[in-house]
Specification:
The chain is an all-alpha fold and 163 residues long. 63% of the residues lie in helices and 0% in strands. The chain has 7 helices and no strands.
Length: 163
């Protein structure tokens, strides 16, 4: 009746949900010496994609350094509980669509490459002082990947949608 979820989608959703679980848990007990919103703020500061840092990297031609990991890590930090829940749900739903046509490695690649290009777009096109956070670029990459792979299947002669 239901399609089994691939491990890659479950892992991505677990990381997103796990981060929010840590933030929620820190409301009642200190984690890493931080409580409540302090842990979320530290995560936003340390793992969010900041335009100022990106601009400094580009202007000094110091592109590959320890800050480059932010091109991916911002996808797992969310502004609040609701944003995190929506991201988990959309990652599971859209990832399951993509799983009909892609394997686990391709699914992870679609998520990370979409997150990477989302950060590049944010860095080059916008001048924001608030960091880029959340997995929206990643799970919308699933939608793009699904459409792309479905179009390839159509071009290969499979005219009907296999759902």
């Amino acid at each position: 009746m239901f399609q089994k979820l691939p491990k890659s989608i479950v892992i991505l959703a677990a990381i997103i949900g796990g981060m929010e679980f840590l933030f929620s848990l820190s409301e009642s007990a200190p984690i890493f010496g931080l409580t409540g919103e302090d842990l979320r703020l530290v995560a936003m500061r340390d793992f969010g994609f900041w335009n100022q840092i990106f601009t400094a990297q580009i202007s000094t031609f110091n592109i590959i350094n320890k800050e480059s990991i932010r091109l991916f890590t911002y996808s797992f930090i969310h502004v609040n509980f609701v944003a995190s829940v929506f991201s988990v749900v959309f990652t599971l739903a859209f990832g399951n669509l993509l799983a009909r046509y892609a394997n686990d490695l391709q699914i992870i690649a679609f998520f990370l490459v979409s997150s990477f290009f989302g950060a590049l777009g944010y860095g080059f096109l916008l001048d924001e002082s608030f960091p880029l956070l959340g997995s929206s670029p990643g799970f919308f990459g699933f939608v793009g990947g699904f459409i792309f792979l479905l179009a390839l299947q159509y071009l290969e002669g499979k005219k009907e949608f296999e759902g």
